[in-house]
Structures are given as C-alpha cells and as structure tokens.
Fold this protein.
Amino acid sequence: MTSPSTSGLSADMPGADTPGADTLSADVPGPSPTRRHYLMCPPTYYAVTYEINPWMHADQATDTAVALAQWERLRDVYLDLGHTVEVIDPLPGLPDMVYAANGAMVVAGTVYSASFLYPQRQPEGPAYERWFTDRGYETFTAQHTNEGEGDMLVAGDLVLAGTGFRTSREAHEELRGLLGVEVLGLELVDPRYYHLDTALTVLAPGEIAYHPPAFSPEARELLAHRFPDAVIVGADDAAVLGLNAVSDGKHVVVAPAATRFADQLRERGYAPIPVPTTELLKGGGGAKCCTLEIRPRLP
Ligand code: ARG
C-alpha cells in the first residue's frame, strides 16, 4: 500500500467547510474547534466479567442500563457539538467492546488494526477492522500487539505512542512505517494508567495535558522537551480518569469529578463539558475510551 501524506495526519479540516459547522465556530480567539468523525459502540453487553486492569473488579456489580444511559448522553453531546457519530454493532461475549478507542487507529483514512494483548479482547480487533473494510477503508492488519487509539494519539504531525502495559514498541515501529510519520514512544509505569489515553489528552495539535507520574523518567523528559507548555494534571484529577477526555480543539468532554483539570482548561480558553461516565469507569475507561476518531484522508 502507499503511505498517506503526512499532511493527512491532522484532523484539522476547517469546520467552516463542512455542513453543520456553524455550531462549532469559535466566538473568541484562542482554541478553536474542528468537526470530528467518531465511531462508538453501545455498551449493550457491558459487564466486568474479567480483570485486566486495576480498575476492574469482577465481584463488583455493573448496571448495563446506567452504562447505556451514560453512553447515550456522551453520543448526544458529540452530536450537539456538530460532530458525526457512527455506531458499530456490539457483539455478545465482548463486554469491553464499548471502549471503541482501542478498536483501531485511523489516520488519513488509513486504518491500522488493533491486536489486543489479552485473549478476552482479541476478537475485537477483527470485528473493528471488518467494520472499516466493509465501508471501503484501506485497512492494514497489525502484526504487533497494539490497542489502537488507547495507546496511540495524534498530536499534530506527531503520533504519541504508549507502551509498558499493552502496546508494544514493535507496533510503534510498524505504525511509523505505515504512516511515514514520527512516532514518539512513551513508557507508562503506573498500572492504573495502563493506556496512554488514561494519562494524556491531546487538546489541540500542539497542546497536550498529562499526568507526569504515569510516565517513566525518559518519557517525562521527552514530554517536557516536546511540550514545554503542556497542562500538568495532578493526582486527584488523574485518579478519576480526568485525562481520558475528548477535545475537538475547543470543547473538552471530561469526567465531572476532574474539577481542577476543568479549571486549568478554562484558563487556557477551552470549554470543558462534564459528562458522567462513572459506570464505564468500573471497566477502567471514560469518555475517550468510548470514542474512536476517524480521521479522513484529506484532499
Ligand atoms: N477494560 C478495558 C481494558 O482493560 C478498558 C479499556 C479502556 N480503554 C481505553 N482506551 N483506555 O482493556
């Protein structure tokens, strides 16, 4: 396959070029939103039936109706912001499929499939890949263990890639070869922050927020060097998965309990939108985990 151009990395198609974009126009200078395209999976079969991260306790009851109501609210917030949301059919026996961010990585219309570490989630990789193949996307089946956008986040012309718990360094290399872009490997060291998207949020192409103690000393140095103006998020906000947030460049969907982070966002001109995801937190995920961004191939 041919490598997409690096310029296709950015999701920053100007919102004004797209229908419905008027709901996204920024009214003040500073952070500005762009229209996004998301894939989500309803938590129809959601339950905590196994434990593969420290948040999960199989003996703790989950309420699928509450999970579904929270998920629907999240989807409606995206729709109200003018974003497009597509939905993949959930499959019985795959309770974690609601965490769509792990299902793939989509950059410039090219899909890099997920290859899950734990056997319980492995069938999700082909299920998500099939969704894309069926819709005519160019897909690339990963040869190395990776958990999609859970660990690989686009920040401008750079991909930030987590490792240490789930996604392998080999997958970072594979992605680099596939996309022809810089992939910055970042080692995670705290098991509560087992995916990069639990410890770091991309707010805008050159702006991130993160919780330094989740990273190895080398990764902290890399982040400090590349993002000297990053929002540094404290332990309390990180511990409610406040960093598992979704930004469209202006609006940031965030766990309501992450109150200090919300203040920090406001100070920078972002508009935090608190959306409760407490039921989905029992599986170790929040808003971002439930949201896979589909970045189109740009003309
Ligand atoms: N129970 C899931 C797991 O441990 C949660 C995944 C959360 N997703 C995310 N993007 N962080 O794999």
